[in-house]
Design brief:
The protein has about 500 residues and is α/β, with parallel strands linked by helices. About 30% of the residues lie in helices and about 15% in strands. The protein has a single domain, classed as Rossmann fold (3-Layer(aba) Sandwich). Helix 6 crosses helix 8, helix 12 runs parallel beside helix 14 and helix 13 packs across helix 14. It holds the Pfam family COesterase.
Length: about 500
């Protein structure tokens, strides 16, 4: 005997009907803004046109235009999804609704990562069923990426990807009570680029009041550019496309392969695009060309400066990083080990010098010349410069309740060298180890389920009431909770502190 379909639910634009998934109800592809095409392309997110009747909300729908890249020896699909699913209506969200017709449930809204150029709400590792199982009303969103979302084209509103996220959070505020959620108890969380975006939203006056708590996983507010600097990238992309570097020029190129070709070309390490600040630092370290900008109404100030003035003080913050973040970028590619031979020192300096004017001093501070292999010194330095220390700086400047974690479980992949790399915490946070287990999986064979159970429970409890089982972080005591070891420690200041603001 088949289950009866769930009752339709009212939203501001019309009725939606999801599908049963065991004891849960899942809604897929609910639009929170109009399709960003035609007159709505390169425009602020616009309201959805109301519909008549009941909208079927059982298909995930399209995602933002993107092109994924393979990682040698690693099945990355559970982390970033299956690639571009074409279609116009991709400014949408999914909802996992717990069973039982409960009301005033805590809400968690997930913002995916992917360097602001790839990814989507539907990657297998971030399935919301486990959070719904534990009484959380879970929401996941798509947003504009790449050229359409994070390129400050003249005559186009800046930070359109962040504005999409703000529109999605406003949709949650206005509609989530119909699904049984409490709009006053919303936790926004995300990883990598998603976490960077959340840190920016904490600092944004336009996002004030849209969430009570935030979890920033392997992210911080240090990866934004001045608009003037970022417009160098606008001109570089325009040259690749042979168009004028303005709204009319970019509007003449439809979302599709030529645009993705240009994104890929300017993203290559060999692309000679100087995105350094006047102080000689490139705050993104080449991880992505496409990032949010500051100096507009979304981010009037760089996020750290905004925090110093009290922005986001009403938001409870859980922020952290993984112990060996850069291993994901430098171990599977073989770059780390290649630097240990021949001209390794010179190459390591050359790589780091593109982003950090004191490259020699940094490498020496991280052990180069004192018995540590050159490739390892660069990997350790970049882990701290790109992820770990900026997260601590964000925690230092945040004036509200702040807790910090570090994830240190080491994957056995790549002969044990992948370690606690970037993205490693995700299957533990979501209690979705099965998606990343196996010979080609991020976690290898038989990762510890007891750790996933415990980490997931910490995230759930924080979303319920903001409580955490360790002391807050401040710049004097520097309390960091080591998730894998299940202990809080007082962490020393890192060598990277001497080289970053």
């Amino acid at each position: 005997m088949s289950l009866q379909p769930p009752e339709p639910i009212h939203t501001a634009a019309g009725l939606v009907r999801g599908r049963r998934d065991g004891a849960l109800t899942v809604f897929r592809g609910i639009p929170y803004a109009a399709a960003p095409v035609g007159q709505h392309r390169f425009a602020l997110p616009q309201p959805v046109e109301p519909w008549a009747g009941i909208r079927d909300a059982t298909d995930a729908g399209p995602n933002a235009p993107q092109r994924t890249r393979a990682v040698p020896g690693l099945d990355a699909r559970p982390l970033i999804g299956e690639g571009w699913r074409r279609g116009d209506n991709y400014l949408s969200l999914d909802i996992w609704q717990p069973a039982g017709g409960r009301t005033a449930m805590p809400v968690m809204v997930f913002i995916h990562g992917g360097g602001f150029v790839v990814g989507g709400k539907d990657a297998a590792v971030q399935d919301g069923a486990t959070f719904a199982r534990d009484g959380i009303l879970y929401v996941a969103i798509n947003y504009r990426m790449g050229v359409d979302g994070f390129l400050p084209i003249p005559d186009v509103p800046t930070n359109l990807g962040l504005r999409d996220m703000i529109a999605a959070l406003a949709w949650v505020r206005d509609n989530i009570v119909q699904f049984g959620g409490d709009p006053a108890n919303v936790t926004v969380f995300g990883e990598s680029a998603g976490a960077m975006a959340i840190a920016d939203l904490i600092a944004s006056p336009l996002a004030k009041g849209l969430f009570a708590r935030a979890i920033v996983q392997s992210g911080h507010g240090g990866m934004t550019r001045d608009i003037g600097v970022a417009q160098r990238l606008v001109r570089a992309v325009a040259r690749r496309l042979d168009i004028t570097a303005d709204r009319a020029g970019f509007a003449s190129v439809a979302p599709g392969e030529p645009l993705l070709d240009a994104v890929e070309a300017v993203s290559l390490p060999a692309a000679r695009i100087d995105l350094r600040n006047p102080d000689g630092r490139e705050p993104v370290f080449g991880i992505s060309r496409f990032v949010p900008v500051h100096g507009d109404d979304v981010l009037p100030l760089a996020p750290l400066d905004a925090l110093k003035q009290g922005a986001g003080a009403d938001v409870q913050l859980l922020i952290g990083s993984n112990a060996e973040e850069m291993n994901l970028y430098l171990v599977p590619s073989g770059v780390r080990d290649k630097l240990n031979t021949g001209l390794g020192r010179l190459l390591a300096w050359f790589v780091l010098r593109k982003s950090q004017p004191q490259a020699w001093r940094v490498l020496k501070a991280y052990g180069m010349g004192r018995g540590k292999p050159v490739g390892q010194a660069l990997t350790d330095a970049l882990t701290d410069l790109v992820f770990r220390w900026p997260a601590r700086r964000f925690a230092e400047e945040h004036r509200g309740a702040t807790h910090m974690y570090e994830f240190g479980w080491r994957s056995p992949r790549y002969d044990g060298e992948l370690g606690a790399s970037h993205g490693m915490e995700l299957p533990f946070v979501f209690d979705s180890l099965a998606t990343c287990t196996g010979a080609d999986g991020l976690c290898g064979i038989a990762p510890p389920q007891d750790l996933a159970t415990r980490v997931h429970a910490i995230w759930v409890q924080f979303a319920r009431d903001g409580s955490l089982p360790w002391a807050p972080f401040d710049r004097e005591r520097r309390t960091v909770y080591k998730l894998a070891a299940d202990e809080a420690v007082s962490e020393p200041v890192m060598p990277a502190a001497a080289f970053l603001p």
